[in-house]
Write a structure and sequence with these properties.
- The protein has helices at about 45-60, 95-100, 225-255, 265-295, 300-325, 335-400, 405-435, 440-455, 455-460, 465-490, 500-535, 545-560, 570-590, 595-610, 620-640, 645-650, 650-675, 685-705, 710-735, 740-745, 745-765, 770-784, and strands spanning about 1-5, 5-15, 20-25, 30-40, 70-75, 80-85, 110-115, 130-135, 140-150, 160-165, 170-180, 190-200, 215, 220-225.
- It is of the alpha+beta class and about 775 residues long.
- Among the domains are: about 1-100, Phosphorylase Kinase, domain 1 (2-Layer Sandwich), CATH 3.30.200; about 110-225, Immunoglobulin-like; about 230-370 and about 750-784, no CATH class; about 545-640, Up-down Bundle (Ferritin), CATH 1.20.1260.
- Helix 17 packs antiparallel against helix 18.
Length: about 775
C-alpha cells in the first residue's frame, strides 16, 4: 500500500492510543522513514484530528536533539491524516525490559574536571584560569556550576553559574575562563574547586531544590598568590631597611670609638667591630630585598637597579673596612697598643667615608620608599576602577535579565571593599612619609566612605537594579576623575621631586588613560547599537537544505580536527582547537541564520589562532591551513542569510553611528598626536608599537562606523582597547632613570651637615639616657 502516492508502507512497527507507526520507504527518494497514521475510529473526530496536528506542530517547533524530527505532514484534505518522522533503529521498551528486567528511569550525569597545567596551578589574584570539564547525561544537561571553597572545605561555598550546553545537549565539553580578579583574595589563599552538573530529570512538580540529579567532579586545589599583598610587604620591608640604615648612621655618628680621644682602647675596638657587623647585616638585608623586588611583578625594573647600585656603593666601603679589620683579628690587640691606635685611626677615616655615603643613600632609599607607595596607590586606583567597570557590566547584564551574574556581583563587591582597605593602608603610609600636602587624600577618603557604605546586593534584594546600576556608574566616573587627579598631581610635582623622564612617563600615562576612557565609551555605545541589530534579525531561520548542508560540513570539519595531533601544537593553539570544536557543535545543531553566521565567524577565528601555534612545514600546520580554507568557505555560505547591519541601521541608529564615527576619528587623531608629543620619546619600544597599532585599529573602526558596519566596527574598537592597554602596561612595567631628588642627594647632604654637626655637638655635651627619640627627631628633620 502506498500512502499519499509517496510512502510505501512496509511494516507495522508500533501501536498507540491515537495511531499506528509504520516503517515506510519514500517512493521518490532514497531512504526510509517512520510514518504515524491516525487510527480509523478517530479520523472522523475533529478534536482528535486537531490534537494530531498540534502534536506535529509542537514536535516540529521544538527541534530538540532528543525529540524525533518531523519531515512531512499530510495535507488538510487528505483522507488519512499522517506525519512522516525520522526512523530510529532502537529496541522497543518491551524488548528492553525482557532483556534487562529493570531500567533506571534516569541515570545521574557524569562529569570529568580536567587538571590544570602545572604553570597554571599557582596564579596571581589578577589572572584568569581556564577551567575545562566534560559532562555527559543520558537525556540532557540542565546546568553546571563552578563551586569554590576554602582549602579543606571549611567555610561557605561560592557558586558560579557556568550556564548550560546548547539545547541541553547530552554531552558537553566546555572551557570556562575563571576571572580571579573578581574574587576577594586573602594574601596567599588556597582554594578547592569542583564542578557540579545537574541533569534535566523533571523529578516531581514543585521540587525544591531544583529538579534533576547532581554529580560532583573530583575536587582540585588552587593556590592563589596575592601579588599586591606581597608587594605591600616588600614596601614595608624597604621602609624597615631605610630605618635600619638611619639607625646605623646614628650609631656611627655617635660612636665613641672614632672620637679624637677614645675612652678605652679595647672598648673602642670592640665598638668598631660591632659597627662593622651591623653594616654587614644591613648589606645582607639589602641583598635579600633586591632578590624579593626582582621577582615582584609590581616593582619597576629601575627601582631594583637603584637598590642594587646602593648596595654596590656601600659594599665597596664595607670591604675596605673588612680589610682593615683583618689586619688585627680579635685578641691580637693585647700588648699591641700602637698597632691598635693606628688601626682605629684608619677605621675612623673609613667610617667617615661610610657616614657620608650613608647620608646620600638614605635619601635615595627614602625617595625609593615614597615612589613605591605612590605607585602602589596609582595601581590600586586603576584596579578599583577596573573592578567597578566590571561591576557596571555585570549589573547591565542583570538588568537585561541574566540572573546568573548575581554570585559574581557579590564576589566583586567583596573585592572592591578589600581593595579600598588597601588604598586606606597605602594612603596612611603616604601621609606618614610625605604628608598629605604632597597628594590631597580627601577625595580618597570621601570615595572610600561612599563605596564602603553602598551595598549593591542589598539594592538587588530590594529589586532596585536600575538604582544600583546608576550608582555604580556614578562611582566609576568618580574613580576616573580620581585617577586623573592622582596622575595630574604626580606629573605637576615640584621639579626636585621628579626627573624629566618620570614627568614624561606620568604625562603619557594620564593621556593614554583618557584615550582609553574615550574608546571604552565609544565601544559601549557601538555594542548597544549592534545588539539592537541582532535583536531585529535574530529570528531569521535557515531553510532545511541549508541547515542540513551546514550540519554535514560541520561534522566533516570536526572529523578533520580530531585527526590533528594537538600534542605537537602549543598551548594557545590547543585552546583554539577547543574553541573551534565548540563552534562546530553549535553549527551542527543550529537552525538560526544569525547563530550560523556568528558561529562560522568564530570558527574561522579559532582555526586561524590554532594555525598560528603550529610549526611551519609540519603536518599539523598543513592540516590546519586546509581547515581554515574549508571554514572560510563555510563562512561564505552562511553570509547573506540575514540583513546586514549596513542595510538595517536607519534613522536614529544611523545618526548615532555617524556621531560615533566622528568621535572615533577624533580618538584616532588624539592617538597620532600622542605619538608626536615630545614625551613620546620616553615611551618604551613595545608601547610605541602598541600605540601605532591602536591608531590603525581606530582608523579602521572609524571607517566601519561611517558605513554603518557596527559588527566590524566593534571588532576594531576592541582591538584598539587591547593595544592601548598594552601601551599603558609598557609604561607601568618600565621606569625612567633615578629622579632628580636622588641625583642631588650629595648636594642635599652637604646642606644638612651643618644641622647635623650642631645637633651632635649638643648631644655629646649632654648625652641622653637613650639615643632613640633624639636620633629619630634629628633624622626626621634631615630627611625632610
Amino acid at each position: 500500500m502506498v500512502l499519499d502516492d509517496k510512502y510505501r508502507l512496509d511494516r507495522l512497527i508500533g501501536r498507540g492510543g491515537m495511531g499506528h507507526v509504520w516503517r515506510c520507504t519514500h517512493t521518490h527518494m532514497v531512504g526510509e522513514v517512520a510514518v504515524k497514521i491516525l487510527i480509523d475510529r478517530l479520523r472522523r473526530k475533529q478534536s482528535a484530528i486537531d490534537r494530531f496536528w498540534q502534536e506535529a506542530r509542537l514536535m516540529g517547533a521544538l527541534g530538540h536533539p532528543n525529540i524525533v524530527k518531523i519531515f512531512d505532514v499530510s495535507p488538510s484534505t487528505a483522507p488519512v491524516p499522517y506525519m512522516a518522522m525520522e526512523l530510529l533503529e532502537q529496541d522497543s521498551l518491551r524488548a528492553r525490559l525482557k532483556r534487562e528486567k529493570t531500567i533506571e528511569p534516569d541515570e545521574a550525569p557524569e562529569v570529568e574536571l580536567l587538571p590544570l597545567a602545572a604553570a597554571d596551578r599557582a596564579p596571581s589574584e589578577l589572572d584568569s584560569v581556564d577551567i575545562t570539564f566534560r559532562a555527559r547525561d543520558d537525556f540532557g544537561i540542565a546546568r553546571a556550576h563552578l563551586v569554590i571553597a576554602a582549602d579543606g572545605g571549611e567555610g561557605e561555598e561560592t557558586r558560579l553559574d557556568l550556564g548550560a550546553p546548547p539545547d541541553q545537549a547530552r554531552a558537553w565539553n566546555h572551557r570556562y575562563a575563571w576571572d580571579l580578579s573578581q574574587m576577594p583574595i586573602e594574601e596567599r589563599r588556597a582554594l578547592e574547586y569542583w564542578i557540579e552538573v545537574r541533569d534535566n530529570d523533571p523529578a516531581r512538580i514543585g521540587a525544591d531544590p531544583l529538579p534533576g540529579k547532581v554529580t560532583r567532579s573530583t575536587r582540585m586545589r588552587l593556590e592563589i598568590h596575592d601579588r599586591e599583598s606581597e608587594h605591600a610587604a616588600n614596601i614595608e620591608g624597604l621602609r624597615e631597611l631605610r630605618d635600619a640604615a638611619v639607625d646605623h648612621l646614628a650609631h656611627r655618628l655617635l660612636a665613641a670609638a672614632f672620637a679624637a680621644e677614645p675612652p678605652a682602647l679595647l672598648a673602642a675596638l670592640d665598638e668598631a667591630r660591632s659597627l662593622h657587623a651591623e653594616i654587614g647585616d644591613l648589606l645582607a638585608g639589602l641583598a635579600t630585598m633586591i632578590d624579593q623586588l626582582s621577582v615582584d611583578p609590581l616593582t619597576r625594573e629601575r627601582d631594583v637597579a637603584n637598590l642594587t647600585a646602593i648596595h654596590r656603593r656601600l659594599r665597596a666601603i664595607y670591604l675596605d673596612e673588612a680589610a682593615a679589620h683583618a689586619k688585627m683579628p680579635p685578641g691580637a690587640e693585647l700588648g699591641a697598643g700602637g698597632r691598635a691606635r693606628t688601626l682605629l685611626a684608619s677605621l675612623a677615616a673609613i667610617s667617615e667615608r661610610l657616614v657620608r655615603q650613608l647620608e646620600d643613600e638614605i635619601i635615595r632609599l627614602d625617595d625609593l620608599v615614597d615612589n613605591q607607595i605612590v605607585d602602589r596607590i596609582e595601581a590600586l586606583v586603576a584596579r578599583v576602577e577596573a573592578s567597578q567597570r566590571k561591576l557596571v557590566e555585570l549589573l547591565e547584564r542583570l538588568r537585561a535579565g541574566d540572573r546568573t551574574v548575581e554570585p559574581a556581583i557579590e564576589e566583586l563587591q567583596q573585592r572592591l571593599r578589600e581593595d579600598l582597605r588597601r588604598i586606606a593602608e597605602a594612603r596612611a603610609q603616604l601621609h606618614k612619609e610625605v604628608d598629605s600636602e604632597f597628594l590631597n587624600l580627601d577625595a580618597f577618603r570621601a570615595l572610600e566612605s561612599r563605596l564602603s557604605h553602598e551595598d549593591v546586593m542589598e539594592s538587588l534584594r530590594r529589586g532596585d537594579v536600575d538604582g544600583a546600576l546608576e550608582r555604580a556608574r556614578e562611582r566609576l566616573e568618580e574613580l576616573r576623575g580620581l585617577r586623573d587627579s592622582v596622575q595630574e598631581r604626580l606629573a605637576n610635582a615640584p621639579s626636585e621631586q621628579l626627573s624629566p623622564q618620570e614627568r614624561a612617563r606620568l604625562v603619557l600615562l594620564r593621556e593614554l588613560s583618557r584615550l582609553q576612557d574615550t574608546e571604552r565609551g565609544i565601544e559601549g555605545e557601538s555594542r548597544t547599537i549592534h545588539e539592537r541589530w541582532r535583536a531585529q534579525v535574530s529570528q531569521q531561520a535557515l531553510d532545511d537544505a541549508d541547515a542540513t548542508a551546514l550540519k554535514k560540513r560541520a561534522e566533516g570539519l570536526r572529523e578533520s580536527i580530531e585527526s590533528i595531533n594537538d600534542a605537537r601544537l602549543d598551548r594557545e593553539a590547543r585552546r583554539a582547537l577547543d574553541d573551534a570544536a565548540e563552534h562546530l557543535d553549535r553549527l551542527s545543531k543550529t537552525g538560526n541564520a544569525l547563530e550560523a553566521q556568528e558561529g562560522a565567524e568564530g570558527l574561522v577565528d579559532a582555526l586561524e589562532r590554532a594555525l598560528a601555534g603550529a610549526r611551519e612545514g609540519e603536518r599539523e600546520a598543513k592540516q590546519l591551513r586546509r581547515l581554515v580554507a574549508d571554514a572560510k568557505e563555510a563562512r561564505e555560505r552562511t553570509r547573506g542569510r540575514v540583513p546586514t547591519p549596513e542595510a538595517t541601521h536607519q534613522g536614529e541608529s544611523a545618526a548615532a553611528l555617524e556621531e560615533l564615527a566622528q568621535r572615533q576619528g577624533n580618538a584616532r587623531q588624539r592617538a597620532r598626536e600622542l605619538l608626536a608629543l615630545p614625551e613620546a620619546e620616553h615611551l618604551p619600544e613595545a608601547g610605541e608599537a602598541a600605540l601605532e597599532r591602536a591608531a590603525k585599529s581606530l582608523d579602521r573602526s572609524a571607517g566601519d562606523l561611517d558605513r554603518r558596519a557596527s559588527g566590524e566596527a566593534l571588532g576594531g574598537e576592541r582591538e584598539a582597547l587591547g593595544w592601548i592597554q598594552q601601551a599603558i602596561d609598557s609604561l607601568r612595567k618600565t621606569s625612567p632613570p633615578p629622579s632628580g631628588a636622588s641625583a642631588q642627594a650629595s648636594t642635599e647632604s652637604e646642606r644638612d651637615r651643618s644641622l647635623r654637626d650642631s645637633v651632635l655637638e649638643a648631644m655629646r655635651e649632654r648625652p641622653p639616657e637613650g639615643y632613640d627619640e633624639p636620633v629619630k627627631r634629628y633624622y626626621e628633620e634631615l630627611l625632610r
